Amino acid sequence: MLNFDEARYARIQAGALAQGPGLSRAIEACLGAEARNLFFPGAWSAAILMHPAAQLLQRRSRFPVFAEIGAELVVGGHQALGPGSIVVIPSLSGTTKESVEALAFCKARSATVIALVGHGGTPLAEGADHAFVNFAEDDTSCESFYLQSLLLALAVFRARGEAADHDAHVADLNRLPALLVEAKRSFEPRAESVARALAADPWHIMVGAGATWPQAWYYGMCILEEMQWIRTRPIHAADFFHGTLELVEKGVSVVLFKGEDAARPLIEWVERFLPA
């Protein structure tokens, strides 16, 4: 018996992808009005999930992009934030206190705010210049936010003429809900044993790099610590040998998040160090 509702999962992820045209129109309108930079100032887990899209833009586009902690942006400010800034704020509930404060802070500085939320009629949805609502819950919001943020990044590339293969990338993303369902289905036979192993150890070191680092951070802090009360130590693979390796001894759990991007050798570097 599967431990997830396939139809519900696919429907929510398809809903995220359905935001693509609207996100593209919002980005085109902002850039047409001579937008000069893009900020991702979210809070908590939703903010972490914006990092792959932010990193993609920072490395593949000449458009200035800033991934900020919303609460810190509010107390510290930013000289690049102001008229012409596009601000993307994600929040599943649409009521996250720090995100609502970031919304007010950015609007007061004449920035254009795009909100990605799971619920309409909320402070973020009502206060943003462009609100995109896709219902999700804790077990489905991760992929929903990843997909929406990547669609937004692709919209920036397209509007700036920096990605000739935009349509092909969007077509690939639209295949993901079915592929993700299949991946979850194929992993189901192992899921219980992995869950029991994670529950059995007192703490875990979560290691990622590149596009997998946000997921390692998110999974450790938001899924295991917040939701399961399991202690973790998320660490970037590039920092693993600066302190964290001293905590690795027999019986310590180390979980590696191995991606397929340019940062994979950093994960393999850690893997070679660890005992079998």
User: How does CATH name the architecture of the largest domain?
Assistant: 3-Layer(aba) Sandwich
Query: Runs with pLDDT <50, length 5+?
Result: none
The counted number of beta strands is 8
Per DSSP, the total helix count is: 12
Query: Kindly state the mean pLDDT as a whole number?
Result: 95
- Proportion of helical residues: 40-55%
Shape: globular
Structural class, by secondary structure, is alpha/beta
Strand order of the largest sheet: 2-1-3-4-5
Total domain modules: 2
CATH topology heading of the largest domain: Rossmann fold
The share of residues in extended strands comes to: 5-15%
Q: Write down the secondary-structure element order.
A: HHEHHEHEHEHEHHHEHEEH
Distance between the termini: 33 Å
In this structure, how is the largest beta sheet organized? 5 strands, parallel
Oligomer kind: single chain
**What is the highest CATH level, the class of the largest domain?**
Alpha Beta
What would you give as the CATH superfamily of the largest domain?
Glucose-6-phosphate isomerase like protein, domain 1
Layout of strands and helices, then pairs:
Blueprint: H1 6-17, H2 20-32, E1 37-40, H3 44-48, H4 51-60, E2 65-67, H5 70-76, E3 85-91, H6 97-108, E4 112-117, H7 123-127, E5 130-133, H8 141-159, H9 166-174, H10 176-200, E6 203-208, H11 212-228, E7 231-236, E8 253-256, H12 264-273
Parallel strand pairs: 1-2, 1-3, 3-4, 4-5, 6-7, 6-8
